[in-house]
Specification:
Keywords: Coiled coil, DNA-binding, Homeobox, Nucleus, Transcription, Transcription regulation. Belongs to the HD-ZIP homeobox family. Class I subfamily. It holds the Pfam family Homeodomain. Transcription factor. It is found in: Nucleus. The chain is mainly α. The protein has a domain of 74 residues. Helix content is 77%, strand content 0%. It has six helices and no strands. Helix 3 crosses helix 4 and helix 4 runs antiparallel to helix 5.
Length: 179
């Protein structure tokens, strides 16, 4: 049955649509790629060129838009999923880095606390010996040794167990400062 005989019949018989051939599909795809919407003039023109009823052209456009939208949503979803996966991976790396830095900070605070305790004990013992002698040179000597000790402790804190400031060949450029 052709389209005209289907329309003229008043009974509800199911009319079978003709399948589109490759040339018709190619022309519809080209037309769709230039404009996703189909106005009535373009629909009539395409229907005439393809030898199809205008309603079939309109339905093809409607279905094509639905498939196109579904595909673009799928692509968008995959893109967003990849971005989420990357963000979660970065988040895990940052959590590990924060934990490592917290441990390093705690270690350095312990060293600093130990240094302050040691310095206070050394100062009181030097201070008592200087009081006996009555010399200001003892205090100057103590301040200089305290400063050198602070430098060594500070560099040791910076370098840590991992040797962050060492070079790849194992040479530590702070080594001369620490000795």
């Amino acid at each position: 049955m052709d389209f005209l005989s289907c329309q003229t019949r008043k009974i509800h018989l199911k009319c079978h649509k003709k399948r589109l051939n490759q040339d018709q599909l190619r022309l519809l795809e080209i037309s769709f790629s230039s404009n996703y919407k189909l106005d009535s003039d373009r629909k009539s023109q395409l229907a005439q060129e393809l030898g199809l009823p205008p309603r079939q052209v309109a339905i093809w456009y409607q279905n094509k838009r639905a498939r196109w939208k579904s595909q673009s949503l799928e692509v968008d979803y995959k893109t967003l999923q990849q971005r989420l996966d990357n963000a979660l991976e970065d988040n895990e790396k940052l959590k590990l880095e924060v934990e490592r830095l917290r441990k390093e900070l705690n270690k350095n605070q312990e060293v600093l606390l130990g240094f302050n305790t040691t310095t206070t004990n050394n100062y009181s013992s030097i201070s008592s010996s200087c009081d006996e002698v009555g010399s200001t040179s003892c205090l100057q000597l103590h301040d200089q040794s305290k400063h050198n000790h602070l430098d060594k402790e500070f560099y040791a804190c910076l370098i840590g167990d991992e040797g962050h400031f060492g070079t790849h060949d194992g040479h530590n450029f702070f080594a001369s400062s620490l000795s």
